[in-house]
Amino acid sequence: MTATVDAGTRRVTTAKAISEAIAQEMRSNPDVFVMGEDVGPYGGIFGSTGGLFEEFGSTRIIDTPISETGFIGAGIGAAVEGMRPVVELMFVDFFGVCFDQIYNHMAKIHYESGGNVNVPMVLMTAVGGGYSDAAQHSQCLWATFAHMPGMKVVAPSNPYDAKGLMISAIRDDNPVVFMFHKGVMGLPWMAKNPRSIGPVPEEEYTVPIGKAAIAHEGSDVTVVSVSMSVQHCLDVAEELEGTTSVEVLDLRSIVPLDREAILTSVAKTGKLVIVDEDYKSFGLSGEIIATIADKDPSMLKAPVERVCYPDIPVPYARVLEYEALPTRDKIKAAIAKVTA
Amino acid sequence: MADNDKRVDFFRQMVRIRAYEAALQANYHADKAPQWDIGAGLIPGEMHLAAGQEPVAVGLCANLVQDDAITGPHRPHHLALAKGVDMNKMTAEIYGRETGLCHGKGGHMHLFDPTQHFSCSGIIAEGMPVAVGQALAFSRKGTDNVAVAVAGEGAANQGAFHEALNLAAMWKLPVIFIIEDNDWAISVARDTATPIKDGSLRGTAYGMPSQRVEGNDVEMIYEACKTAVDRARAGGGPTLLEIHTVRLWGHFEGDAQAYRGDELNEANERDPIPAYEKRLISAGLITEEEAAQIKAEAEAEVQAAIDFATSSPEPKPSDAYLHVFA
Amino acid sequence: MSETITFPEMSNDPEAEGVVATWFVQSGEAVKAGQVIAEVMVDKVSVDVEAPIDGVVTCLVEEEGTAKQGHEIARIE
After folding, report:
1. Nearest 10 degrees: Cα torsion B116, B294, B75, B205
2. pTM score above 0.90
């Protein structure tokens, strides 16, 4: 169920919205618990579990050793026995040390068992760059996870969606990979876009997994994006109001992908820009284009512009990193090109 | 000490498992001739049979109840049968039928029976962290159920084994780790992969009681497992048991086992079932006729399961798209 | 009735400067007692700052601006 955002709704960071969602579900369901590195008193490296240890203590907010295979596997085991763990993989880039548990077990057990065993688990993880954390700590990788069948993948761009998607994820009987971009968390120690703080209703509410949202209505061009990049797209769309009417489609979920929403918007505008901080080739942007090509390529009145991370590891130096990132300037240029 | 009824039951269960593995072996190969094609026949794909390892499964499961959990390896049949997984549904699954445990979705290495809390995985050692999680759930719910993770001696060199042991000891969880040391990880002999002779040292290293059990003797295995299971149920935390057993056949069906040389003959001498039969007959617990009767009953039960499987419908092709998500 | 909100004392070093990292409200907004109005940080440790009473808030320090511990950062009227 959705919740209305009144003028007086209090504003919080995305990090707080996430921890609040977890807290509310933990209060109403004793089977929900949290495991991960530094999720306890520290509150999560990126603030995703702030305040939870103080309220629920060490039996339900569990600091683990550095054993991703071990504790993600333990999350799977607890889930198959009916609990609802929220397990944090500190950086998505660490998936390499534990991906077997994720894609061969968490994602496949329901299918392999012919539907007889559920894995109602949330795997939450920090993604994204822009603050010089370099190649092994800055990736997005939603396409990598999306490519493997059996797990849902969500990535909110703002506090309201973050809370609603986390509640939906916890209640979902399927494994959900909840990817929060560090840049949308509203952390005090990282440069932030004001959109990382926003109105969030105090009561529980859900945002449906698998449904995109029109973050900014428009008619000249469709800009499809997800996660942090949505904030940049909105900045550009607002700047261009009066000149170009930009429709920003916030995917919110990568699996299931809201192909209907993509097709509806592109049918309306005929022009498509995709803004994706994940690697360009063999990923999400290609899948969005394929969605259109599969249905009706004549929908497109101009070639697609992809503002995506190039196929390079993330460089360290700021000038190099920002050469690669899908920045506002690049988004503006892409919109201009496509609508020329 | 197992009482006499229990000992006869150990024999009956081991015979049942051997009859099963032998029947599967025969049927698996029968329709792949003459040009052996792994993908051909009524049981396609890989097949890993546990002949020789029956004492581990039977000795362990005699200490377990329905709501205790087992995560098993790619060689799971002895564990599944000893645990109480339905033989008909298991066989139908191995034959890829709609009536199988997993409606044909999993096959021989991915048998899931949630009513028995039994699962297995084809990825070496990866069931160990999952068993830790099941134990975590049991202890959170306040039951005295235990989880058991079974893997081979090769698995003890995989990272997941080490992480699972450390976590289980740190959180003092009711989980038992069983290493079935059958001397071979496919074609790699244990002493070329593991520098320590006594793998139970690894449990000690991670802070849990630990024991290596020699002899592949169902009664000794029963006792060792009993101590571990009782400890876990009482809140005493995890145990590592390294149980020396024997792999009588190939790693997989189709494995020519040239690498075993003479050791193969020596291994056959260590077949635990004829030895146990002799022992029970000497002790006057069964007669030769009763032993033969037990074998005949086992073979009949197995044949009935195979008949159930082969007469079951295959899944519809469109079923492939079902059960990606709940 | 009005109240001043000062930057919390968080560091062992009383002279350490802090940052008002995030304002959750704007000057002129009505706030309730207990509402989190800002997140401040000293030495990489951050805390929430709550409004002590109901009223209208005036923010005295810019977002991401520095302030000394114990100094005024907002007023509620």
Report:
1. 80
2. no
